[in-house]
Specification:
Elements lengths: L1 H16 L6 H27 L2 H4 L7 H22 L3 H5 L2 E5 L8 H15 L4 H4 L10 H6 L1 E5 L3
Membrane topology: Multi-pass membrane protein
Subcellular location: Cell membrane
InterPro entries: Pra-immunoreactive, RDD
Length: 156
């Protein structure tokens, strides 16, 4: 039993040595790509529901549909991409995938939820949780640390 666990741990250590972590600037560009793509989805929906007035109004939230389209829909889309493809389209540009930090295997639904909640935590203090990626050995942001995930380059 102990020998098997040692072999597994050695296999994980060996796999980690051959991993290429996706760094800060590629992840920044990935976020920009993802944000633009989400806008291509949400803005036409909001225009169809509220008309041009939506974009000229000073009210922060126009109604229940505004909340659903701007908050619930993006969360659903992002988590869908994480579960289905292990990456968002922006990360796919760099052949990046989000995996469990320990096993380098697929992340669970719980990890996806924790990672998304971690986005909020990473954002609140001046985006320090995202800036952390630039200085971390495994290029993990706070959201990655919370969910125990890493973003790596997928093997061809």
């Amino acid at each position: 039993m102990e020998e098997t666990q040692q072999m597994t741990e050695q296999g994980i250590e060996q796999a980690e040595k051959s991993v290429t972590y996706i760094g800060f600037w590629k992840r920044v560009l990935s976020s920009i790509i993802d944000s633009l793509l989400l806008m291509l989805v949400t803005l036409p929906i909001l225009f169809a529901i509220y008309g041009i007035e939506y974009f000229t109004s000073e009210q922060p939230i126009q109604g229940w549909a505004d909340g659903v389209v701007n908050y619930v829909l993006p969360i659903a889309i992002v988590i869908f991409f994480w579960l289905r493809f292990a990456a968002t389209p922006g990360k796919m540009v760099w052949r990046g995938v989000i995996v469990d930090a320990r096993t380098l295997g697929p992340m669970s639904g719980m990890q996806c939820a924790l990672r998304y909640i971690g986005y909020i935590i990473s954002t609140v203090p001046l985006c320090l949780g995202f800036i952390w990626i630039a200085f971390d050995d495994k290029k993990q942001g706070w959201h990655d640390k919370i969910a125990r995930t890493v973003v790596i380059e997928r093997d061809e």
